[in-house]
Amino acid sequence: MDHSPTVEAALRRARGRVEAHEAVLLMAHVLGRPSAWLYAHGDASMEEADAHRFMKLVERRAAGEPVAYLTGRRGFWTLDLAVSPDTLIPRPETERLVELALERVPPEASARVLDLGTGSGAIALALARERPRALVTATDRSNAALAVARRNAADHAINNVAFLPGDWYQPVAGGRFDLVVSNPPYIAGGDAHLARGDLRFEPAAALASGADGLDALRVISAGAPRHLHPGGWLLVEHGMDQGSAVRALFLGAGLENVGTARDLEGRERVTFGQAAGEPVARSG
After folding, report:
1. The whole model's pTM is what?
2. What does the pLDDT read at residue 56?
3. How far apart are CA 157 and CA 14, in angstroms?
4. How confident is the model over 201-250, as pLDDT tens digits?
């Protein structure tokens, strides 16, 4: 007698332990099928090994592991990206940073772009995909994270990104760019949120930055004038209560036209500033 569960029965069993949409994502991952297929084939029988693997993933998710790490994937912008516990999980609010960055790079411009602390490569690859004439450089001090980023670039055949190992600006010493972007760690080291939810499983170095969460942002702000062309822009993501502090850092570094943009929830999310001087037209 066949005791293999159907897809719908396995999903029903899982829903008591994890969110319904999470169960669907885990099932789609195990079966290698799109989510829509599951809804149309709920009566399909599962292989015993697949059913066992699915429930193991459900147990791990119920224990708190992020779905993105369990499936090894996360969508960002128009890209389906590989992620791992060596990388921060890309989040929808970071797409606001991409939108604001794209506004500052004309589609036909051969701009030089720098992404600091690239992680999975999400920001760098989104910008490189949308601006194929741009030359994007992405840095990260984690070689393991860079391996994931390089894999994502290869998977999407995005060839206008160079990935360099090193801390913040160190790999591009002496280089200047038209645009510098970063989603750095910005949580205070003792913040209780670090011990909750998905954050427990993400790399601490990609989340926390000093007692007030601003250490990385201080380095990025201070180094911007030495690495921006005249008229070039710095854009950083930060916490919703850090806008005033980051604006002060930008102004202290000598940046002009400093401001903060809000996310879809109305929270201060991305601060921007421009290097002094008139932009110089570059082509080629």
Report:
1. 0.88
2. 95
3. 36
4. 777 777 767 778 898 999 999 999 999 999 999 999 998 999 999 999 99
Residue among 13, 2, 50, 11 nearest 30 (CA): 50
Q: Is 58 exposed, middle or buried (0-12, 13-18, 19+ CB in 10 A)?
A: buried
When the candidates are 1.10.8, 1.20.58, 1.10.10, 1.20.144, the CATH number that belongs to 7-63 is: 1.10.8
Render pLDDT for 56-66 as a digit per residue (tens, 0 to 9).
999 999 988 99
Residues whose CB falls within 8 Å of the CB of residue 99, separated by 6 or more in sequence, listed in order? none
Mean pLDDT of the chain: 91
CA dist 260 and 264 (Å) reads: 13
pLDDT, residue 1, reads: 36
What percent of the chain shows pLDDT beyond 70?
96
The CB-based long-range contact list for 80-86 (8 Å cut-off, 24+ gap) reads 81/120, 81/121, 81/122, 81/125, 81/152, 82/120, 82/148, 82/151, 82/152, 82/155, 83/120, 83/148, 84/144, 84/148, 85/201, 85/202, 85/203, 86/142, 86/144, 86/145, 86/147, 86/148, 86/203
Query: What average pLDDT does this structure show over 182-200?
Result: 78
Q: Using N-to-C axis directions, what is the helix angle for 95-103 and 122-130, rounded to 10°? A: 40
Domain ranges (residues) in the chain:
7-63, 76-274
- The mean pLDDT of 92-107, rounded to a whole number, is 95
Inter-CA distances, 258 with 62, 92, 212, 248, 265, Å: 43, 24, 21, 9, 21
Q: Which CATH architecture has domain 76-274?
A: 3-Layer(aba) Sandwich (3.40)
Rounded to an integer, what distance in angstroms lies between the CA atom of residue 131 and that of residue 109? 8
